[in-house]
Amino acid sequence: MTLSPDRYSSITIILHWIMGFAFIAMLASGLVMEYVDLDRAVKFPLYQLHKSVGVLLIAAFVLRLAARLFAPTPALPDTLPPLEKTLAKLGHFALYGLMLAMPMSGWIMSSASSSGLPIMVFDLFEWPLIPDLSGNKEIGGLAREAHTILAFTLIGVLVTHVGAVIKHAVVEKTNLLTRMWWS
Ligand code: HEM
Ligand code: HEM
Predict the structure, then answer these.
(1) Is residue 170 part of a domain?
(2) How many domains does the chain have?
(3) Has residue 139 been placed in a domain?
(4) How many helices (H) and strands (E) in the chain?
(5) Dihedral over Cα of 17, 30, 118, 41: its sign
(6) Is residue 130 part of a domain?
(7) Would you say residue 121 lies in a domain?
């Protein structure tokens, strides 16, 4: 029997914080793109930035999933009642699903656009569009709808995620952050 570690692996910790802040920035930039009346000179670069970071998050997800599957994961604290353990596992599972579905729906949406505009990652290289989707209004419309619904779902799950960390710190005096950091 191997002993459970008391923190996540270094690769998971690094990816959790980089991806975490990137996702929050993506949600903020997406909402600005959608609901703020921006000048064209700002709007285009913001879309390019949103798409650049967004597609890179697909690559980051592949690494993150590999780390989750192959690196040792700490067992949830024994102080957690069984129901909360189940809820934590469900919440983390939902976050992984959303971390993939969010950028995938954006990639599909952009690939289905009739503009055929390439996705240039920070003007450095081109991220391919998904073949045979260009101009497909039906798939493009569905992907756009999914992108919006998934974004608001992610906001809800994240509020719960951070709320749970705060609740455990305040009510049970268990600092879960030490599991997601080097201590
Ligand atoms: C900035 C606010 C955030 C804080 C304070 C935070 C904190 C934490 C902590 C303490 C854990 C470890 C939970 C445990 O004890 O097992 C954790 C796990 C996790 N967090 Fe966050 N987090 C934040 C943002 C995010 C964001 C934005 C995402 C995704 C978009 C995210 C995704 C995850 C996932 C998927 C896990 C589970 C890791 C695993 O089991 O592999 N977190 N977070
Ligand atoms: C990685 C995570 C991503 C997050 C969290 C995210 C978040 C968002 C949000 C919140 C919106 C506003 C949605 C609304 O209220 O209707 C949005 C819009 C948009 N996103 Fe993303 N996005 C992500 C990835 C991507 C990717 C990878 C692409 C394309 C390659 C993309 C392309 C777009 C476009 C084009 C819009 C504007 C849609 C429109 O004009 O109606 N997103 N995004």
Answers:
(1) yes
(2) 1
(3) no
(4) 4, 2
(5) negative
(6) no
(7) no
